[in-house]
Design goal:
By secondary structure, the chain is of the alpha/beta class. Helix content is 25%, strand content 23%. It contains 13 helices and 27 strands. The longest helix is centred in the first third of the chain and has 16 residues. The N terminus is likely disordered. The structure holds adenosine-5'-triphosphate and magnesium ion (MG). Adenosine-5'-triphosphate binds next to helix 2, strand 8 and helix 9.
Length: 563
């Protein structure tokens, strides 16, 4: 099911794949994988990697595996596995029967390690973690060899077997690769391959007390799955020689190739599972799927369509240098998609009562209103019109400036898909002076056209019928952080949270066609923005999340001006 909007432009990774295909490098095979560690919910950065890996497989007729990179028991769980599966599927990608778990390879990885020991390529080191760090040297000084480096193969095998058997406490020994303590690349100074960790694993339970390090498990998992192009983020560039060393020395075939690209950073948010976990655990957001979160689950609940996220990933492209993408671009992609697909409805966020004095008391007209201005195939819905309506408080001003083209005393405005009305009086609270309702008259000849006498009426406002509309709760969201780079300062990043990132309005009213709006369905509330029915909704009491306002700040940023 290749998503039609999946990337086709040639970036440097696609260029490598094309070249390899031309040279028949892997017998014409293209195999990628998306390898998340199930220690948090996926975020928009992961979406970039998902779109890249699955997109390449789709484009070149290859395959992409979904692999849980679950080799470190701390913090991994089934809940996270399930979130990853749900989110990748929702993004529109399909791994068919190729859902894999690196933890299923533990025995194979162990056997590879035994072989490395036998080949004199790995040894058991009994230095403490601090000592290992000290012996490693620095960028400018070479490291020092461990006194345990020259243990015999027999002793190493014996110790490694007993490590596995659980004879030693955490930290007593590690298995290290025997490479080069004076390598200019610190990563190559006898890196640790296995450590003792007495912690139950969410899948293997207490079967294992030694766990392989990422740098060892990852290349071998790739080789086991016959991955051809192992795409990862730039921070692993220095680790590539180790990736190649592991594959070469274990003689795992066929050999995958690691290619690094720049991770996605985005303004006004944080893209690090560790930080996101902190927000969730400290209760600073309402869970992983809080609509303000940059998680896929949060964006789904907010109402972002998967097409918009794929389109965003397409537009940011793939490069080799780090940058920060403006969150306004993501919001722009969301608006773009929703503008095309979201049915139009009317909803009033902050109601003001309007009585039409010359409209018959018991009359109700069902006015046919188009669901989309540019897509007649989306049809019409019926919107009831009656004597008492609600309009938006902001669409009325007691004392307006000259150019104000909404409603004011003595002025006229068109009610969307309905009549022209004129404000004739106001009712205010006798004590507080607060505006309670306005009274209008309507011009019966203006339902389908302009006034007969040719007078001009500039403004159009939205409305709902007081008796027919439904009460609703509307949740307005703004950016999660109030500064473009929340991680920028050394101070606690949570200090940069936007205190006004959520506002809940409980007085809103929506047209009755939204009575059974299914959770996840998205609409444009005319003039007010895009909204998505929340799973907290019940029949007759829909709850809406604001997905986005109508105002596009990206057009301005990009200097496109027009929109
Ligand atoms: P985090 O930094 O959020 O903890 P991670 O890299 O530890 O993320 P993994 O579960 O290891 O998370 O990531 C799975 C895959 O997604 C990896 O291939 C990783 O390179 C990629 N990935 C993670 N974050 C980003 C990002 N911000 N942009 C692009 N790709 C990313
Ligand atoms: Mg990681």
């Amino acid at each position: 099911m290749p998503p039609a909007d999946s990337s086709s432009a040639v970036d440097f990774i696609r260029a490598i794949v094309e070249e390899d295909l031309k040279n028949n490098k892997h017998n014409g095979r293209v195999a990628t994988r998306f390898p998340p560690e199930p220690n948090g919910y996926p975020h928009i950065g992961h979406a970039k990697s998902v779109c890249l890996n699955f997109g390449i497989a789709v484009q070149f007729g290859g395959s992409c595996n979904l692999r849980m990179d679950d080799t470190d028991p701390s913090g991994e769980s089934l809940e996270y596995v399930e979130s990853i599966i749900r989110d990748v599927k929702w993004l529109g990608f399909d791994w068919e029967d190729r859902l894999y778990f690196a933890s299923d390879y533990f025995e194979q990885l162990y056997q590879y390690a035994v072989q490395l020991i036998k080949d004199g390529k790995a040894y058991v080191c009994s230095l403490s973690a601090d000592e290992i760090r000290e012996y490693r040297g620095t960028l400018t000084e070479p490291g020092k060899e461990s006194p345990y480096r020259n243990r015999s193969v027999e002793e190493n095998l014996d110790l490694f077997t007993r490590m596995r058997a659980g004879e030693f406490p955490d930290g007593a020994h590690v298995l290290r690769a025997k490479i080069d303590m004076s390598s200019p690349n610190v990563v190559m100074r006898d890196p640790v391959l296995y450590r003792i960790k007495r912690e139950p694993h969410y899948r293997t339970g207490d079967q294992w007390v030694i766990y392989p390090m990422y740098d060892y498990a990852h290349p071998l998992s790739d080789a086991i799955e016959k991955i051809t192009h192992s795409i990862c983020t730039l921070e692993f560039e220095n680790n590539r020689p180790l990736y190649d060393w592991v594959v070469l020395e274990t003689k795992a075939e066929p050999r995958p190739r690691q290619i690094e690209f720049a991770r996605l950073n985005m303004s006004y948010t944080v893209l690090s599972k560790r930080r996101l976990i902190e927000l969730v655990q400290r209760g600073l957001v309402k869970g992983w799927d809080d609509p303000r979160m940059p998680t896929i689950a949060g964006m789904r609940r907010r109402g972002y369509p998967p097409e918009a996220i794929r389109n965003f990933c397409d537009r940011i492209g793939v490069a080799k240098n780090d940058s920060i993408v403006d969150i306004a671009l993501l919001e722009h992609c969301v608006r773009d998609t929703l503008n095309e697909m979201a049915p139009r409805v009317m909803g009033v966020l902050r109601p003001l009562r309007m009585v039409i004095d010359n409209y018959p008391e018991n009359r109700v007209e069902e006015l046919e209103s188009p669901c989309h201005p540019k897509r007649p195939e989306m049809g019409f819905r019926k919107v009831p019109f009656s004597r008492v309506l609600y309009i938006e408080q902001d669409d009325f001003l007691d004392n307006p400036p000259k150019k104000y083209n909404r409603l004011a005393p003595g002025r006229e405005v068109r009610l969307r898909n309905a009549y022209i009305v004129k404000c004739v009086s106001m009712v205010k609270d006798e004590i507080t002076g607060e505006l309670q309702e306005i009274h209008c008259t309507y011009d019966p000849g203006t339902l389908t056209g302009s006034p007969e006498d040719g007078r001009k009426v500039e403004g159009t406002i939205h409305w709902v019928s007081a008796a027919h509309s439904l009460p609703t709760e509307i949740r307005l969201y703004d950016r999660l952080f109030s500064v473009p780079n929340p991680m920028g300062e050394k101070e606690d990043f949570t200090k940069n949270l936007n205190r006004r990132s959520m506002e809940v309005l409980v007085i809103g009213r929506v047209e009755p066609s939204l009575k059974d709006a299914a959770p996840g369905s998205r609409y444009q509330f005319e003039r007010m923005g895009y909204f998505c029915a929340d799973p907290d909704s019940s029949s007759g009491k829909p709850i809406f999340n604001r997905i986005a306002t109508l105002r596009d700040s990206w057009a301005k940023v990009a200097g496109q001006g027009k929109k």
